[in-house]
Specification:
The chain is of the alpha/beta class. The protein has one domain: Indigoidine synthase domain (Indigoidine synthase fold). The protein is 46% helix and 14% strand. The structure holds pseudouridine-5'-monophosphate (PSU) and manganese (II) ion.
């Protein structure tokens, strides 16, 4: 079974040299579980599904790689650029290619302050893919993101949890329907498909307990990062990479370790879901 992996995490989400190491770690994790990793990006205007080892290295090292959500894909292709794919773009390409499962770190959502809502939410509502994540990124307005997912009709489940996780932390006060097994998630996905629903399933998989960071600590680093953001005047799609970078610095790298481990954990669950879907598609 194939499992889709994104590349914005590699080009804009994690600092070097962790980014390349993580890309390979994720691919290796999938292979060990008997799945075929398909890391997705646009290279010189061509959509590539299943980058080679050398292509991943080149992508991670190049400075001119664009961060592409769905709406940036046509531009990157027509202008023969190279782009990493966000959750929205990767989900769309996975759906096009018939890859039913995609594992990532955190999804984009509703940012605090003036209107800034990720394309990820819209795409989750219209591409039939199981997307495994550790919750919305910690820099977001979690309550608003939760409500927005409802408004867009995204089917959300919590894997062995009753509340939405918040990326670095395992739980929040936001309730989600609980599922216990990969087979149950596969059944939810198939039920939606049988109803011809446009979307798939968003799976919330909490970070492993040993890597969890307390909400209070995260809050402190996030506030510092937000103050830097306002001072630097960064806007648009540069906001997420900027905040992640600042938080990595303030936390002395702890957010990076947590990020790597939670994505790996999501790949493991994603592979189990993919295997549970075998023969049901
Ligand atoms: N989660 C991370 N690191 C990341 C991202 C998510 O831990 O780099 C990326 C994903 O690719 C996600 C994107 O789709 O950030 C969201 O960006 P924006 O908020 O600009 O839509
Ligand atoms: Mn945005």
């Amino acid at each position: 079974m194939n499992i889709a992996l994104e590349t914005t995490l590699i080009t804009h989400g994690l600092p070097r040299p962790h980014n390349v190491a993580t890309a390979f770690l994720l691919e290796e994790t999938a292979r060990q579980l008997g799945c075929q990793p398909r890391t997705i990006a646009v290279l010189d205007g061509k959509v590539r599904v299943g980058l080679t080892h050398d292509e991943i290295l080149a992508l991670a090292e190049r400075e001119d790689v664009i961060k592409a959500g769905v709406r940036e894909l046509p531009l990157a292709i027509a202008q023969r650029k190279s782009a990493s794919t966000t959750v929205s773009a990767t989900t769309r390409i996975a759906a096009e290619q018939g890859i039913p499962v995609f594992a990532t770190g955190g999804i984009g959502g509703v940012h605090p302050g003036p209107w800034d809502v990720s394309q990820d939410i819209l795409e989750l509502s219209r591409s039939p893919v199981v997307v495994v994540c550790a919750g919305p990124k910690a820099i977001l307005d979690l309550q608003a993101t939760h409500e927005m997912l409802e408004s867009f009709g995204v089917t959300v489940v919590g894997y062995q949890t009753d509340t939405a996780p918040a990326f670095y932390t395992r739980s929040t006060h936001l309730p989600v329907p609980r599922v216990e097994s990969p087979e149950e998630i596969a059944a939810v996905y198939c039920a939606g498909r049988d109803l011809n629903l446009p979307g798939g399933v968003l799976v919330y998989n909490p970070i492993p307990a040993e890597y969890e960071i307390a909400a209070g600590e995260i809050q402190g680093w996030r506030d510092l990062a937000m103050a830097d953001l306002h001072q630097a005047g960064v806007s648009g799609k540069a906001i997420t990479p900027f905040l992640l970078d600042r938080m990595a610095e303030y936390s002395g790298g702890r957010t990076v370790t947590a990020n790597v481990q939670l994505v790996k954990n999501n790949v493991v669950l994603g592979c189990h879901i993919a295997l549970a879907l075998r023969g049901r598609l």
